[in-house]
Amino acid sequence: MNYEIKQLDKFKYIEEGQGEPLILLHGLFGALSNFKDLIEYFRHHYRVVVPMLPLFDLDLLHTSVGGLQKFVHKFVEAKGYNDIHLLGNSLGGHVALVHVLKHPEKIKSLILTGSSGLFENGMGDTYPKRGDYEYIRKKTELTFYDPATATKELVDEVYGIVNNRLKAIKIIALAKSAIRNNLGDELQQIKQPTLLIWGNNDTITPPFVAKEFNKLIPHSELHFIDKCGHAPMMEVPDEFNKILHGFLTKLKQTVTV
User: Fold this and answer.
1) 89: Cα separation from own chain's centroid
2) Are 225 and 240 in contact (CB under 8 A)?
3) Rounded CA gap, 11 and 28, in Å?
4) Hey, which residues does 50 pair with through a beta bridge?
5) Domains of the chain: residue spans and CATH
């Protein structure tokens, strides 16, 4: 299903459904397509919002986790959202964490899946081999437990990014910023109920990272999914949606009691 991309000032985003906002933040090589199953399921229950993060549009100085967080904050302010359920995958999770730490007042819950912020394996020490399609295909496949999830369309997208010199520089800048911006003990300040959904076979932010997040974030619960890599909402959408829906329903019941 194709969703209308809306525009408000400099912000481009998808907004489907009614109710409390469920804002989805994609990762470094992410796109709106990463969330298609999630949007389709939750638009019947929430106002599902996917802002297009300006990974390649910020000047180099602001091409960082902090720069993306400021963008998200301005977007939230421009739209006037409240009672937000903020979900982030990979780098998007990192941005969500920084946002909650800086602007907790409008965030009702936090959902992280394969999030950076404590530890992550990048695209590798030799990143990126421009022009080497096979190398990019293998690296893209590492995102998933089942290599077949890395469709030709997805590999082509990543290949196109790393073969654009300016985009490749910005990807490296964002990856380095994520490694530098280690949140550690700051995570103990998070007061929001937090859901961690992790692939048991995630090689980029391995399971021990999820356990560390669970230990450091006070009101957090952790769910592992077997035979699943770094992007559970893409690889096992039905299971992901079931866990998330259960968490949000429980939260709603707690609030009304």
Assistant:
1) 2
2) yes
3) 18
4) 14
5) 6-122+182-256 (3.40.50.1820)
Amino acid at 97: L
Show the tokens assigned to 13: 């985003």
Place of tokens 């399921």: 41
The β-bridge partners of 47 are: 21
Side by side, the strands of the sheet bearing 194-199 are 6-8, 11-16, 47-51, 21-25, 84-89, 107-113, 194-199, 220-225
Indicate the DSSP class of residue 80. Answer: T
Residue 71: name the closest of 9, 29, 131 by CA: 9
Distances (CA, A) of 9 to 75, 78, 90, 216: 10, 9, 27, 37
What are 17's two structure tokens?
Answer: 């459904």
Cβ(111)–Cβ(247) under 8 Å?
A: yes
15 pLDDT more than 80: yes
Q: Which of 36, 76, 28, 33 is nearest to 56 (CA)?
A: 28
- Give the Cα separation of 223 and 214 in Å (integer): 10
Burial per residue of 57-84, b for 16 or more beta-carbon CB atoms within 10 angstroms, e otherwise: ebeeeebbbebbbbbbeebbeebebeeb
CA angle 89, 39, 245 (to 5 degrees): 75
pLDDT tens-place string over residues 166-184? 998 999 999 999 989 999 9
Express each pLDDT in 184-228 by its tens digit: 989 999 999 999 999 999 999 999 999 999 999 999 999 999 999
